[in-house]
């Protein structure tokens, strides 16, 4: 059946409704229909990547974000999402390279700085990660940024600084304290004086 502009408009509206309802399965079906009709549209490729990401199909989303960039090389959102998907998929070195390229164009993105810092720590480059993580922590003030900054400090041997940072985590947050324990006891330069009285029975 030949598609008219009205048909395309209706299909696009259905796609937007599915996105607004977070009906990712329906959104994926509609995205595929739209891309079949408009294969050179970078926005559709990008949105399909986001849908796949929300479906937990991160490796598949990589191809969509790359397709977006093939069509629109300066699509900054696709650059970010591709780098993030690479990080989540375990392609750490390529993710770091992509985040570096992205930050060259969007230098004040604290989330990208955080992700680049995380990638660099995982690559064993704690010293290089510090400025990115420090910036992310100053801008975001999140527990995640603080924990990765502390991890980088630990890995470069500044254990006192790592402990001081982790002391800022909420004492009544069990998850935060579990992260503190993990950071201070793991890694080649971790330390934590365990008091066995913490484990006494009441």
UniProtKB/TrEMBL annotation:
The record's TPR repeats, renumbered to this chain, cover 42-75
What SUPFAM superfamilies does the record tag this protein with? Answer: TPR-like
Q: Name one Pfam family in it.
A: TPR_9
Report keywords, A-Z.
Answer: Repeat, TPR repeat
Q: Does the keyword Iron apply?
A: no
Q: Note the Gene3D superfamilies from the entry.
A: Tetratricopeptide repeat domain
Instruction: List the InterPro entries hit by this protein, alphabetically.
Output: CellSynth/LPSAsmb/PSIAsmb, TPR-like_helical_dom_sf, TPR_rpt
Q: List the protein's name.
A: Tetratricopeptide repeat protein
